[in-house]
Design a protein that fits this description.
With about 180 residues, the protein is mainly beta. It has a single domain (about 35-175), classed as lipopolysaccharide transport protein A fold (Sandwich), CATH 2.60.450. It is built from 1 helix and 11 strands, in the order H-E-E-E-E-E-E-E-E-E-E-E. It has a 6-stranded antiparallel barrel. The longest helix is centred in the first third of the chain and has 18 residues, at about 1-20. The chain is elongated and about 115 Å long. It starts with a helix and ends with a strand. InterPro entries: LipoPS_assembly_LptC-rel (IPR010664), LptC (IPR026265). This is LPS export ABC transporter periplasmic protein LptC. GO terms for molecular function: lipopolysaccharide transmembrane transporter activity.
Length: about 180
Amino acid sequence: MRNAYILGLLMLVAVLGLGCKRDLKNPDEEERYTGPTIENHDVTTLYSDSAKVLIKLQAPVQQEFEGGDGVFPKGFYIEFYDEQGKLESTLKGNYGRQETRKSLYYARGNVVVNNLKKNEKLETEELYWNRNKGRIYTDKFVKVTSPEEVITGVGLTANQDMSRYSIKKVTGKFNFSEE
């Protein structure tokens, strides 16, 4: 009786062991998830120095990825303030990307930078903003409009507030003077 009980128990373990067989897969060969790890809505990010807000970034959606980089699939809007807290300029685009380690932002689609102090507007389809250096640049077509003139060209480097800028290849300059 004891032998029959042990034999029955061994057969049960053998049947259950065969039925629970799993294929072990190499995790390095598995398809990895590459999508966002975090998605935030109605985002406002403030960058300050000595308790003074210098930059305000707003976006309807921000997606962050594993390495810390992010995208703004529905665009973003940035305000730049001077040291007295007065709004100097704005930047907006229909799509944005952020490389955190480089403090580099990329804007694409109807990109507009407004210098409120000089009443100038920059329009382009693609623009990079280096937050650490306080610079914006592009190698695409640009149009800078002021109350006196419109300047068009290809390529631009500027301060982030558009107080000083350089257009690489000027293709047109149109003055608005009444005579």
